[in-house]
Specification:
Layout lengths: L8 E4 L7 H8 L3 E7 L18 E5 L7 H14 L2 E8 L1 H13 L11 E2 L8 E6 L11 E6 L2 E6 L7 E4 L9 H19 L6 H19 L4 H17 L5 H12 L3 H9 L9 H10 L14 H12 L2 H8 L3 H4 L2 H10 L1
Parallel strand pairs: 1-9, 2-3, 2-4, 4-6, 5-8, 6-9
Antiparallel strand pairs: 7-8
Helix pairs in contact: 2-3, 4-5, 4-6, 4-8, 5-6, 7-8, 7-10, 10-13
The structure holds nicotinamide-adenine-dinucleotide and zinc ion (ZN).
């Protein structure tokens, strides 16, 4: 039994971002740093009425998903110039995870990669507010800040990675184009399936995952409701945060580490080959068909055996998710040979 930490406060509803300044003044006496997804650099008019320009704004590059060195650079820049006691993250999973990691690194010495793993953070992080602008990863509600360092893609799994406050404003996700919506929403679909089919779930996480899947299926059918999509993402996050992901995420981490695939896309490529473990792959394939997505072959002759071996090793580093999927004796079942066989199908 785990003692589950969840986000303390959230506000949900159209224009709820209006509350941001009040929340900042209630919780900050020094500098507030606002990390914003670079999509808004050219679309700042969407946010400008809600952000007081006395705060320090840093646009975060989303060209690649979080790299530990990039987080170290941001932390150094902030430490050298400001005395922050509050971090706000506004953006997708990339920006939210960078914000979470930054809030930890500002009070814990060393590099971001030193904290990749489970419960390695010693000092309390600084107060943080998360505001998602694309839905699916559930990063707004989880206890991990995922990043890639030279040898692994792994999160800072810690209670200190949980946002203190979340604002879910459906107006902010309305500009997400269809191709980005679908892959990030697929991530949510897979979170729910992996949580439900794992061994570490409980009545609470099952309820979150079932409701999230039910609502998400309606959205995939074409009944788009932005606020409900935000709830799907949040519930998917709550489900995995307090149970675990399963087989698909570790495989996707290998693909992302070696080939640089974005998370939602890597998840989609991997899940497509997991029908022997997850019967939900059938529904998933129907959704891909509905959205006219035909997935290319990723592991082709241009990918070397050495790269495939590195992907398999990166996959097998994810002991906790794999234990969730297969039980304590997972190493006997999910061997490197099996991982390579699955990867070669992708
Ligand atoms: P993302 O944050 O990388 O964003 C994808 C793209 O969408 C970016 O180009 C971004 O600029 C753009 N975008 C964001 N908001 C937009 C808006 N309102 N309108 C138009 N464009 C917008 O994508 P993501 O799928 O949200 O996040 C992926 C990352 O999240 C990966 O690094 C993954 O590992 C991580 N992740 C974290 C958790 C967690 O629990 N912490 C869970 C799952 C995934
Ligand atoms: Zn995911």
């Amino acid at each position: 039994m785990k003692n589950c930490k969840i986000v303390q406060n959230y506000i949900i509803g159209e224009n709820s971002i209006k509350k941001l300044n009040e929340l900042i003044s209630n919780n900050s006496k020094k500098d507030t740093i606002i990390l914003i997804d670079d999509y808004f650099e050219n679309n700042y008019s969407i946010l400008e009425n809600f952000i007081n320009n006395k705060h320090k704004i840093l646009f975060v590059s989303t060209k690649t998903e979080p790299k530990s060195e990039y987080i170290d650079e941001i932390v150094k820049k902030i430490k050298n110039n400001y005395q922050p006691d509050l971090i706000v993250g506004i953006g997708g999973g990339t920006t939210l995870d960078i914000s979470k990691a930054t809030s930890i690194l500002l009070t814990n010495n060393g590099k971001a990669e030193d904290y990749q793993g489970w419960d390695l953070v010693k000092n309390k992080s600084i107060y943080k507010i998360g505001i998602p602008t694309i839905s699916g990863t559930g990063a707004e509600f989880t206890r991990t800040a995922v990043m890639t360092s030279p040898s692994k893609k792994l999160g800072i799994n810690s209670d200190e990675s949980v946002f203190d406050q979340v604002i879910l404003d459906p107006n902010l996700i309305k500009t997400v184009p269809n191709d980005k919506f679908i892959y990030t929403a697929m991530d949510c679909f897979v979170h729910n399936v992996e949580s439900l089919r794992g061994t570490q779930n409980d009545s609470m996480t099952i309820a979150y995952a079932e409701k999230s899947l039910e609502m998400l299926k309606k959205i995939f059918k074409g009944e788009m409701d932005y606020e409900k999509l935000m709830v799907c993402s949040a519930f998917g996050g709550l489900a995995v945060a307090n149970s675990n992901v399963g087989i698909c995420h570790p495989l996707s981490y290998g693909l992302s580490l070696v080939l640089g695939l974005r998370h939602g896309y890597a998840i989609t490529i991997a899940f497509n080959q997991l029908e022997e473990y997850y019967p939900e792959v059938k529904d998933f394939k129907l959704i891909l068909e509905k959205y006219n997505i035909s997935l290319p072959k990723i592991i082709d002759e241009s990918v070397t055996e050495e790269q495939i071996s590195k992907m398999a090793d990166a996959t097998l580093l994810n002991e906790k998710p794999l234990e969730n999927a297969f039980g304590k004796k997972w190493k006997e079942i999910f061997t490197k040979e099996k991982v390579i066989e699955l990867l070669k199908k992708m």
